[in-house]
Design goal:
Helices cover about 0% and strands about 70% of the residues. It is mainly β and about 300 residues long.
Length: about 300
């Protein structure tokens, strides 16, 4: 919405929304001095991360503008994990756990843009402020050993902080070149400031990320191309300390097409990222493993001009 030198806007974003249902069964596993007859695991998880907020911009002059925004964020995680371990000696172990997490807070941001005839330069800063972090873990452990009169039973309830929302300061500097309505190129640099995270598995390291984009257009269609990095803020695993963390640096590419009508625009595209790194995935062990990851996402967007 525009009024004079002011511009107002609002948005609702769903950054993460997934359901996980995992059911695994393994038989005759060699674990050193003994052997597992059977290992069963059922894992179910729901995870959502939503933001809602508004922003305002003000045109200081023909070439200079400033803006600010404020978002409310909410993350919710609920998971259930059931494990059954049976050895060849007929001992039996059952582990059942539930985790429920809720994170809430605010994400304010400030920005400034300098725009001349064919190019623009912008700078922005964003820093989250958490005001409610709560995680509850309930775990039950049942052990049965042949020859014992009765199985042993253990129950645990804990309120850890390792799932608290982490909000590092992010600074961004961007450049765009737009000589005419048919060509647009941009480049952005992001700096994520590292910080110490009490109770977490790992502190965060100072990290840089980069992105570049290109748009070639005609009066009725366009092509979108992009490249970006997605580097991890986690430190690489230390073979002297067990932290159960994964450090992967990604390189990604995106592409899409735009179809233009009189008052309508339709965009179709996708992006993929692939990376390699190190992880500690064996509980209690400082041994590190080489890991790789790849993801692919498709998107569609529509715009109508009133």
């Amino acid at each position: 919405f525009k009024k004079g030198n002011f511009v107002f806007g609002y948005t609702f974003l769903t950054l993460d929304n997934r359901n996980i249902n995992q059911n695994d069964q393994f038989a005759n596993l060699d674990v050193g001095s003994s052997q597992l007859k059977q290992f069963d695991r059922i894992h179910q998880e729901t995870n959502s991360y939503d933001l809602i907020g508004a922003g305002i911009g003000y045109k200081l002059s023909k070439y200079l503008g400033i803006g600010m925004s404020l978002f409310y964020y909410q993350r919710k995680i609920e998971s259930m994990d059931f494990q059954l371990v049976q050895s060849t000696e007929e001992s039996l172990r059952i582990i059942a756990s539930k985790i429920k997490t809720s994170n809430e807070g605010l994400k304010p941001s400030l920005g400034i843009q300098l725009k001349l005839e064919s190019w623009a330069l912008g700078f922005s800063a964003i820093k989250g402020i958490a005001y409610s972090d709560h995680t509850e873990i309930n775990m039950e452990n049942i052990n049965f050993t042949p020859g014992e009169a009765a199985p042993t039973f253990e129950s645990l309830t804990d309120y850890p902080t390792f799932l608290d929302e982490v909000n590092p300061l992010t600074l961004a500097l961007g450049f765009a070149y737009h000589p005419n309505k048919f060509f647009l190129a941009s480049f952005d640099t992001y700096y994520h400031r590292g910080l110490k995270v009490p109770g977490a598995l790992s502190d965060l390291n100072d990290t840089f990320n980069y992105s570049a984009g290109l748009q070639l257009s005609t009066s009725f269609a366009g092509i979108l191309l992009g490249a970006f990095t997605n580097n991890s803020m986690f430190y690489a695993p230390d073979d002297k300390v067990f932290r159960n963390i994964t450090h992967i640096d990604y390189l990604g590419f995106s592409g899409g097409v735009v179809f233009k009508g009189k008052n309508v625009e339709l965009t179709l595209g996708g992006l993929s990222q692939k990376g390699e790194g190190e992880s500690q995935i064996v509980s209690g062990s400082t041994e590190t493993q080489e890991v790789s990851s790849e993801s692919l996402m498709y998107f569609a967007a529509a715009k109508y001009r009133f």
